[in-house]
Design a protein that fits this description.
419 residues; transferase; Sig_transdc_His_kin_sub3_dim/P; kinase; EC 2.7.13.3; 68% helix; alpha+beta; nucleotide-binding; 2 domains
Length: 419
C-alpha cells in the first residue's frame, strides 16, 4: 500500500506530473493556432464555441507543427534540461548540445511531440477532472450543489446516486494520479532513447575529450620540462658551489660566484615560465590551446651555461630561419636531454649537437653510460615520453637508448610542420 501511494503521489511522480503539465503549457500556442484554422471548417459558431470536434482537430493540427519546431537547434538542449530536472533520468543518459544529423533531429522531434502531446492530454484532465470529482464527493453534503445545474445535467437527483458519487469522485482522482504517473514513467523510459547521445554525439564528445587531454598533456610537458630542468640544474650548481665554498683559491671563489649567478638566472627564467603555464591553467582549455610562448634555439647558450661545465652544446646552420614552433620544441628537447643526463649520467660529460639541414632540424645528444644502472624514480620516465610526443606532434620522430657504449638521444623535426 505504501509503495502504491509513493508511486502515485511521491516526489518523483509529482515532478513528472509537473513535467507533463509544462508540456501541455508549451502546446497551447500551437493549439490556439490550430483552433483558428480548424474552427471555421468544423463549427460555424467560431473558435469560441468550445466544440469537442474543434478542440481535437486543433490538437491534431498542432502536433505536426510541434515536430517541425523540434528541428531547431535549441529544441534538444531545452528538452534535455527539463527532462534532467523533472523526469528523474540520470544526466549521463542524455545528450548535451543541439542534435546532430538526421537521426538525432528525428529522435528529438519524436520526443518533443510525445512530451507536448501527452502533456496536453494530462494537463487538460488535470484542469477539468479534479473540480468535477470534488463536486461529486461533496454533493451529498451540500444543498447548493444538489440544486445546481451540474446535478440536473448529469441527472444526479436520486439520493443513492449522490452517495455513490463519493467513491466515484475519489476513484476519479486516483485514476488521474495513476494516468499521470504512468505517462510520466513512459516519458522517463523514452527519454534516453530519444534524447540520448547518437553516434555523432559520442564522436563529438570523444573529440572534445581528446582535445582536452591533449591540452592537459601539453601543459604537463611544459611544467615537467621547465621545472624539472631548473631543479636539476640548480641542484648541480648548488652542490658544486657547496663543495668549493670553503676553499681560498680565487678560481674556486670565481666558480662559486658563477654557480650562484647561474642559479639565479635559471630560477628567474623558470618562475616566469611557471607563472605563464599556471595562468593558462586558470584561463581554461580554450585559451591554453594556442601556441605556448617560451624560449627557443636562441637561448641554447644560456641553457648550456646553466647546465654546468660538463655540458657542451653546439649548433650549426641558420637557426633563425627555423619556425618558432619547431625552435621552441627543439629547445625543450635539448633541455630535457640535459636534465636526464644530469640526473642519470652521474656527472659524465654531455654533448648536444643541433644541426639545421634543408628542411629538417636534427638533434643529437650523447653521454657515456654510467658504471651501474641509475636508480629509477617511482613514476619516472615521463621525460623521454614527452620528447617523443613533442617530435610526433611536429611530424618528426625521436629515439633514445644505448648505442656503442654511450647513451644517445636523437630527434628529427621537419620545418614544414612549424609553418
Amino acid at each position: 500500500m505504501r509503495r502504491t501511494v509513493t508511486a502515485l503521489f511521491g516526489r518523483r511522480a509529482l515532478m513528472r506530473w509537473v513535467h507533463l503539465i509544462l508540456g501541455g503549457a508549451l502546446l497551447m500556442p500551437y493549439w490556439l493556432l490550430g483552433t483558428v484554422v480548424t474552427s471555421p471548417l468544423l463549427d460555424a459558431r467560431g473558435m469560441f464555441a468550445a466544440s469537442l470536434a474543434v478542440q481535437f482537430a486543433a490538437y491534431a493540427f498542432a502536433l505536426p507543427l510541434v515536430a517541425i519546431t523540434a528541428l531547431f537547434p535549441l529544441a534538444r538542449p531545452i528538452s534535455v534540461g527539463i527532462a534532467r530536472a523533472l523526469c528523474g533520468v540520470r544526466p549521463e543518459e542524455l545528450a548535451d548540445g543541439p542534435a546532430r544529423g538526421r537521426a538525432g533531429k528525428t529522435r528529438t522531434a519524436g520526443w518533443f511531440t510525445l512530451h507536448l502531446g501527452i502533456g496536453a492530454l494530462v494537463s487538460g484532465a488535470t484542469l477539468a477532472l479534479p473540480p468535477f470529482a470534488l463536486s461529486l464527493v461533496a454533493l451529498p453534503f451540500s444543498e447548493r450543489l444538489r440544486n445546481s445545474e451540474m446535478t440536473r445535467f448529469w441527472k444526479l437527483d436520486e439520493p443513492w446516486v449522490q452517495w455513490a458519487g463519493v467513491p466515484a469522485g475519489l476513484l476519479m482522482l486516483v485514476a488521474l494520479a495513476a494516468v499521470a504517473a504512468g505517462a510520466g514513467a513512459l516519458l522517463a523510459r523514452c527519454a534516453p532513447r530519444l534524447l540520448g547521445p547518437s553516434p555523432a554525439d559520442r564522436l563529438a564528445a570523444a573529440e572534445r575529450r581528446a582535445e582536452e587531454l591533449a591540452v592537459r598533456n601539453r601543459l604537463a610537458r611544459e611544467l615537467h620540462d621547465s621545472v624539472g630542468h631548473a631543479l636539476s640544474a640548480v641542484t648541480l650548481q648548488a652542490g658544486a658551489a657547496r663543495l668549493l665554498l670553503d676553499s681560498d683559491a680565487a678560481a674556486d671563489r670565481e666558480f662559486v660566484r658563477e654557480a650562484l649567478a647561474a642559479i639565479e638566472d635559471t630560477t628567474r627564467r623558470t618562475v616566469g615560465e611557471l607563472d605563464h603555464v599556471l595562468g593558462l591553467l586558470r584561463q581554461g582549455d580554450d585559451e591554453a590551446s594556442g601556441d605556448l610562448p617560451g624560449p627557443g634555439l636562441e637561448a641554447l647558450a644560456s641553457l648550456a651555461k646553466g647546465a654546468g661545465a660538463t655540458a657542451a652544446v653546439t649548433w650549426s646552420g641558420e637557426l633563425e630561419r627555423v619556425p618558432r614552433a619547431v625552435s621552441r620544441e627543439a629547445y625543450r628537447i635539448v633541455q630535457e636531454g640535459l636534465t636526464n643526463a644530469a640526473r642519470y649520467a652521474g656527472g659524465a660529460p654531455v654533448t648536444a649537437r643541433v644541426a639545421l639541414h634543408d628542411e629538417e632540424l636534427e638533434i643529437t645528444m650523447e653521454n657515456p653510460l654510467p658504471d651501474r644502472p641509475p636508480a629509477v624514480r617511482p613514476g619516472g620516465g615521463r621525460g623521454l615520453r614527452g620528447i617523443g610526443e613533442r617530435a610526433r606532434l611536429l611530424g618528426g620522430a625521436a629515439a633514445a637508448g644505448p648505442v656503442d657504449g654511450v647513451w644517445r638521444l636523437s630527434a628529427r623535426l621537419p620545418l614544414e610542420a612549424g609553418r
